[in-house]
Design goal:
Elements: H1 2-10, H2 15-27, H3 32-43, H4 48-73, H5 78-81, H6 100-115, H7 117-136, H8 142-169
Length: about 170
């Protein structure tokens, strides 16, 4: 099923859609959009806890998603197995499962939605497009993206609980 979805997506490529999908996928490179938002929130006193929670969530993404799970599962990316699909973005390194772009996006969205539902709804739309772009570019399977969404939600909730415990319950 993973491959049939990816091959279907290859059939909808269009230069205009390619242009936008390249932009959206690059917004997720290294979690950059979420890192920048975290630092923006850290600067303002009224959003500092939100920023701190996002930073913690992104650290969890790096540790659990990129360093632990990716290396344990060691799933090759789709383009490593199916050479017939030309990439329109630079070939990413590392393993496929879970999607790091999607993981960082959904961790951040979960946190944003918890603190500000309005911002969270807009961020959710961005996270969906970033996740979709990874399949569109043939660098992740749909199950990689789905795993990034689920794990991102869980890591976001863990970050919220962690900050709540250390800053609020312990009086930090």
């Amino acid at each position: 099923m993973d491959l049939s979805i990816l091959h279907y997506l290859q059939g909808i490529h269009h230069p205009i859609l390619d242009f936008f999908m390249i932009i959206f996928t690059h917004l997720g490179d290294g979690g950059i959009i979420w890192i920048l938002l975290s630092f923006f929130f850290l600067v303002k006193k009224e959003t500092r806890v939100l920023g701190l929670t996002m930073v913690l969530g992104l650290i969890f993404c790096l540790l659990f998603g990129n360093l632990l799970i990716k290396n344990i599962v060691a799933r090759p990316r789709p383009f490593h197995i199916h050479f017939d699909i030309p990439l329109i973005i630079k070939e990413p390194s590392g393993y496929s499962f879970p999607s790091g772009h999607t993981l960082a996006s959904f961790t951040s969205v979960t946190i944003l939605y918890f603190y500000n539902k309005k911002w969270g709804k807009w961020a959710f739309l961005l996270a969906l497009i970033i996740g979709f772009s990874r399949m569109y570019h043939f660098v992740h399977y749909p199950t990689d993206v789905l795993a990034g969404m689920v794990l991102g939600y869980l890591l976001g909730r863990l970050s919220i609980k962690g900050i709540d415990y250390f800053l609020i319950k312990r009086g930090g």
